[in-house]
């Protein structure tokens, strides 16, 4: 059987850290073409379902249970297609309903390593179609002498040490999972009695002020993770929001995420606590942060009042999160109806951790 053969031969696999996530990267041709068979194989490689993933390659968190499937693209003006799959940890779930901007940081280097894209002499720009959201990102990273250079001096919050920059520029991220930037049709809604802005610029996210949930917004990850009553409220809130966003029943989906906002307190421009979708994030997702900032920039949105202090001469927005800062670049043209995203982007790093053959459990 197919199962048996993968246990004997294994599967060609590269593990990379992308931003603050870690994932298994595959070429599509090395995986079963049938999605059900592919998902079954991926769960057995990752060691899901098991809270420790002791018999697999996962790291016992959702941020380390991620998959990238990469293939040459037949779309015009695109080099490779990238399908992101979020695996559960203790539940046997595989979801293609969300994208991941952190794992994305590893896709360009992976494509060059595997010869899917020819490297430039100094740096390489890889045009990546993000299949989950049918949008394009351009990843630019150093390739001196035609080889990917992972070493560099860029530090990002949540990752020890420094590494080479991977600059990610996004286009067409509006409505990534829902079809529109403001999926409820409003810039502000009242959900479960709480003022909310539902926004989708790369990631569907529901924004609310931390104060609306009786929080300061400066709670630690552990405090939030231990507050069961809060997490239940967050879940009810995001499920109701999902209905208004036309996403249907999301009880087993990893989207929409929730982001709670507060005034900055560490030199940034907003302080965030995000939930993916119910467990608190140790930092914040890339596309999650891009969506948060996009929402806040819209007049009338939750948190828009905080943007009054933002410098007008820069599009670099410093987003505070539980373990540091994430700088995102978002430019919105609010003069049009509906508002239009002119550009968004972020700087990440990535590192190849191993390249070899991965063996699934039975
Ligand atoms: O928002 C976590 C992460 C993410 C997603 C999650 C992400 C993004 O931090 O682009 O990267 O939302 O589950 O990797």
UniProtKB/TrEMBL annotation:
Keywords associated with the record: Isomerase
Single Gene Ontology MF annotation: isomerase activity
EC id: 5.3.2.8
InterPro entries named in the record: OMA_tautomer-like, PrpF-like
Pfam families assigned: PrpF (PF04303)
EC supergroup of this enzyme: isomerase
Domain of life assignment: Bacteria
Signal peptide, first to last residue: none
Record carries keyword Amino-acid biosynthesis: no
Family: Belongs to the PrpF family.
Protein's UniProt name: 4-oxalomesaconate tautomerase
Organismal lineage: Bacteria, Bacillati, Actinomycetota, Actinomycetes, Geodermatophilales
